[in-house]
Amino acid sequence: MSEGLWINFLSCTEKYLWKIYWLRKVLLVPDLNGKWICKGHTNLKNAEVVDYDWEATISITQSWSKILIHLKTKQSESKSISASIYHEYGVGYRVLYQYNNRPNADEMDLSNHSGAAELLFSEDTESAFGSYYTDRHRTTVGIMSLKREK
Length: 150
Description:
Elements: H1 3-15, H2 21-27, E1 34-45, E2 48-62, E3 67-72, E4 76-88, E5 92-103, E6 113-121, E7 127-134, E8 140-148
Antiparallel strand pairs: 1-2, 1-8, 2-3, 3-4, 4-5, 5-6, 6-7, 7-8
């Protein structure tokens, strides 16, 4: 295969071919693209137990080799800076990602921070559940539950 054909094949796979259902099943790569409704709960903040519920929308943009996770709440928004996906047979797809968060300009109690999340998506990729934590400046720990928006 010539170099030009190979590059075209890789480009086509990156954008389109990986979305073919049977190919995704063989390669164990889920299609998580789309909007998700997120319900979160913060358990710990600044080393103190808290009980705080929050809601967000998550947009996932994915190709064969890349994934971007964008979470938006009323107070701030987060964007992933790195992510990985792997399949756990009979359990689902685990997504691990790191993110940076920027609060809205009018949020005086929030500051820029980074964090990490681990989400386990169901085998049918219609829901997910997981946990998150933030850096030493915010020291927040909590859980998230996602449902795919129809």
